Amino acid sequence: MQLEFFPSRSLTLYLARLFITRIVAVLLMLVLVLQVLDLLGESGDILAYSGNGEAQLFYYVSLRIPQLIARFLPYSVLLATIITLATLNQNSEVISMKAAGLSAHQILAPLMLTALAVSVLSFGFNERVVTRASATLDAWQAVDYGPIPRKAGAKSNLYLADGRDLLLAQSLEGTGNGMVLHGVTFYRRDANGMIVEQLRAPDAAYLNPGWKLDKPVRFDVAGTKTTTLATATVAPGITPEKITMSKVDADSQDIVELASSILALRDAGRRTSELEAAWWHKISGPFSSTLMPLLGAVAAFGLARSGQLLIRAVIGMALGFAYFVFDNAALAMGNFGGYPPLIAAWAPFLLFALIGETVLIRTEE
Length: 365
Description:
Protein name: Lipopolysaccharide export system permease protein
Membrane topology: Multi-pass membrane protein
Keywords: Cell membrane, Membrane, Transmembrane, Transmembrane helix
Largest sheet: 8 strands, antiparallel
Number of domains: 2
Subcellular location: Cell membrane
Organism: Novosphingobium pentaromativorans US6-1
Number of helices: 10
Low-confidence stretches: none
Structural class: alpha+beta
Distance between the termini: 12 Å
């Protein structure tokens, strides 16, 4: 009986090298194709802002590519698994390894170790690169691809209520009493919820209480008149603390920042199940790559000349894509409280790990 989990060192390195080259090739193909399609859809909006040109297009690509890599890396690992194992099967290398006494688990071990290393790198890449790129891109899109405000954070497109009145802002900069809102629109409403006055201003500074609008354009709904005021103070019930807690973007915060935001919201009595599910998914998401060799393993075994290699490859692909469907569905359930956050993030991973292991043992072991 073979008790070693890995095959020989030479075979382990051979399989790992074969696997990682295919992961990189598939990932490059997916990212390039998707980036071109995405840029075709966004280039019109980017160039619509006066002064934007080729440099801004390349800047958008530099911010978007990390998001595409993070999203489609697990898909790339799945496709690379099927391509690698199907090729090994087609060339009778799997039969040779099994004839030498290797089990199915030993054949898959180098691939799973490689996928684990990819998962760790993916986690670090998401935390250090993707979160910052997402925050910058959100801030840039909030100003319609114009100049990004200095010290712009992840918060954009703010929608705040002060009793019946509404305060909207495209973006913000600064913290505490030094906070400044950009692209501000204020709606004053009556007791029936009807808008009676609108104020628009480029900026709003916090006065404690209220927000000072410089040279706002006032539109009176009843008189249908537009006037320009020197200054105006609005929304005394909205504070910088409320704005800070009003919108937390999990994609734009690393795992430490997100944990701090969750604690702050929880102390304020706010619902945090959506953010907690996103926090756990920051770990389970990257580590889903480790699961892909197990789900695609069905493509490695069976006789290639029997004509079932394509069917096996399709089954492996179906298992992998079913995982992503269940993962998104569970995360959506966790967002509105249907599942506990921990279950929403990890249940699909554990379920499909058991499914993949069951299929492997029943068919090959």
